[in-house]
Amino acid sequence: MPGHNHYPWCTCGWCVKYGRNRYSASDLLISADLYSAKRFLKEHGVGRYVSACFVNPNARCPVCGASVFYYQNAHGSRVYFDDLGPPWPKHPCTNRETFRPPSKGSSAEPPQKRKRGLMLELLEAAQKLAASVGGSEAEEYENGWTLLWVKGVEREGWKNRVTAEFLGLDETKEIIFSFESASEVVKSGDVISLRDEKISLFDIERMKTRTYAVMIEEWPVGEDAATKDE
Question: How far is CA 143 from the centre of its chain?
Fold first, then answer.
């Protein structure tokens, strides 16, 4: 049947016609480009949160099949997040008292950062979709939190000295900062969020989100004073 199960950019001669209107060639190309972007994001588990462009979701919800960020500690406690960083939204299907996550299909390994080239491709696809509906590519991040990948931690007493990498940039840029905590709450390979002079992280040992004031010791090379104060 003409038009059944066909996409708007199909060139069969039938399904591009709706009433008296036809899509122009440019409309078809734009529609195809947006469809490709949406499919590319879905294939890599990127939903409405841009954090998945930078960090690979490491599990699927056993209820709805959505890509999620899964954490499990040595004591058997588990949690599924839709997004990394404040407000750390828990996946609704797994946030029910009756939910019992299965042991199969979910890794105890924390989410891993994506390769830089793939990060940029996914972010570009997200920008295309957001622009098509008049939004920004990171509406959920207008609260100012920036994702960091922890490269190293030196701990002495209560002091943690952290070297971290900004995620999603064309080139590698690092920042060094320190903060105090009674116990070890961050390690190499963790994903944390930075805003002004505060960090937000997930303490996997205690299964809690935490916020700490930090002292910036070294900004990325080329970062000027005006940028730091923003």
Answer: 15
